[in-house]
Amino acid sequence: MKRIGTKDLSDRKNDISLSTEETERLLSVRPNDNQIRLAEKPFYVFIHFGMNTATGREWGSGKETVQDFDIRHIDVAQWVDSIVQSGATGIILTCKHHDGFCLWNTAYTDFNIMNTLYGKDLTAELSAACQKAGLDFGVYLSPWDMHEKSYGSAEYNDYFAGQLTELLTNYGEIFEVWFDGAKGSNAKDFTYDWERYYGIIRSLQPGANIAVCGPDIRWVGNEAGKARKNEYCVVPDYLRKTETIAKNSQHEEGAAADLKRVGTMDEDLGSRELLSRTQKLCWYPAEVDVSIRKGWFHRRAENLTVKSAGRLFGIYLTSVGNNCTLLLNVPPSRDGVIDSRDRKSLQKLGKKLRSMTAKPILTREAVTPEDNRILFDFGGKKTVRYCILQEDIAFGQRIEAFALYLKKPGGKKELVYRGGVIGMRKIIPLTGRAVGAQLEILGSRGEPHIKFVGFYE
Fold it and tell me: What is the pLDDT along the chain (457 residues), one digit of tens a residue?
């Protein structure tokens, strides 16, 4: 928690820009319906499973055969139960990773799970299990394909488009399609037909967000579970260029550690000063992707690297609680189940998430500030542990700076937090007892629209 002492900021001149040409330009950038729905379900899970699970690798070699996938038993019901207990609302499956091995009954290659000892359409099984449990289902389809001989030619775009069409046609409603820019340094120089891919998705699954190498959800820029101090949704449109995303993606199997470093991230992607120098803007919220383990695929040698529930909860607070979505990778083992270590952390994480809002002190919706301040009366002395704030992003991203005070039993007002962006969601851990609170908007692009404020014991 960012504590700032007891200095009262109430005499500060608030910066609320109204009806200027630049303010109107910034506020004209707003989320589409899919992105608004995304804000309501900000925590979901990646399932990395496939040929690499069987071979114990992170990336394939391009020389694998279907016989190398020797996994016979897969318990998707156990996967889904583990994810439900974590508090996540959806699963994205690695239907095809870089090795080219497909986890569904595809007509485009024999290099698929139907021709293994398992012999069943795993994508169909997981999609059905998600639907039964009330989880959203999404797909990852690696653009880079080590196995397919047509890769690097125009025919590959047809191949990829055909496989994408299969996944978007035969497996129910898809909530997110996840592409990355990872490609081996020795891979053929090849330009993917992104606009064609996007057109297929918009046509077949109009409710799906397209992430990372896509126009709807932005990669945060690392795989360490870290976000910026102020993670804006309104950013320069050039951040959506797939060439830039691919350049910053992984290009060697052993380079994953580099993506766990966050020092190279540009801290400011959306301040007024930066956007004033940018002609074209877009709504492009950040997704924080991080694995529960050291690697993205399960390896027994990494059992001791499983993140604790406390660490996962901390990542949740600094991602979901900092105007981002969280994509947590949970890789099942070659035994066909999610490892007991991972499962235990997920269960404990779910308990922490549920307990965070289990004892509400006060909740209010559609709050309108008066003189840029909102007062809250707790109706008595309460122990305050969390404050959750949400803007109504249908009106764009507005709040740039705010301060939160707690009113002590003796009447004294204590400044307990001063922050910047609120956006989709801001979660503030707190300590101490109070009889009320005050939220002060210090900077906003026009009149603030606050969707929700909640205080919890």
Answer: 343 444 555 445 578 887 799 999 999 999 999 999 999 999 999 999 999 999 999 999 999 999 999 999 999 999 999 999 999 999 999 999 999 999 999 999 999 999 999 999 999 999 999 999 999 999 999 999 999 999 999 999 999 999 999 999 999 999 999 999 888 888 898 999 999 999 999 999 999 999 999 999 999 998 889 999 999 999 999 999 876 566 655 445 554 443 343 333 589 999 999 999 999 999 999 999 999 999 999 999 999 999 999 999 999 999 999 999 999 999 999 999 999 999 999 999 999 999 999 999 999 999 999 999 999 999 999 999 999 999 999 999 999 999 999 999 988 999 999 999 999 999 999 999 999 999 999 999 999 999 999 999 9
Phi and psi for 5 in degrees, rounded to 5? Answer: 90, -160
- What is the identity of the amino acid at 445? R
Do 66 and 119 contact (CB within 8 A), yes or no? no
Pairing of strands 373-383, 386-391: unpaired
Q: What would you measure as the largest C-alpha separation in the chain, in angstroms?
A: 75
- Residue 213 and residue 245 in contact, taking contact as beta carbons nearer than 8 Å: yes
**Contact at 8 Å (CB) between 26 and 272?**
yes
Are the CB atoms for 429 and 388 separated by under 8 Å? no
Q: What is the DSSP string of 32-94?
A: -HHHHHHHHS-EEEEE--SHHHHHT-SS--S---GGG-------HHHHHHHHHHHT--EEEEE
Give the type of residue at 361: I
Rounded CA separation 368/379 (Å): 20
Dihedral (Cα; 94, 336, 258, 224), 10-degree rounding: 90
Q: Are 309 and 345 in contact (CB under 8 A)?
A: yes
* The 3-state secondary structure of 168-214, one letter per residue: HHCCCCCCEEEECCCCCCCCCCCCCCHHHHHHHHHHHCCCCEEEECC
DSSP character at residue 112: B
Whether pTM > 0.90 for this model: the answer is yes
User: What H or E segment, with its residue span, contains residue 455?
Assistant: strand 450-456
49 within 8 A of 116, measured Cβ to Cβ: no
Task: Report the distance separating Cα 214 and Cα 322, nearest Å.
Answer: 22
Query: What angle is formed at CA 127 by the lines to CA 308 and CA 156, rounded to 5 degrees?
Result: 100
β-bridge partners, 436: 377, 407
Q: Which of 261, 256, 344, 333 is nearest to 306 (CA)?
A: 344
Where helices occur in 286-417 by DSSP H, the ranges are 309-319, 340-356
Residue 127: which H helix or E strand, with range? Answer: helix 122-133
Q: Give the whole-angstrom CA distance, residue 218 versus residue 31.
A: 13
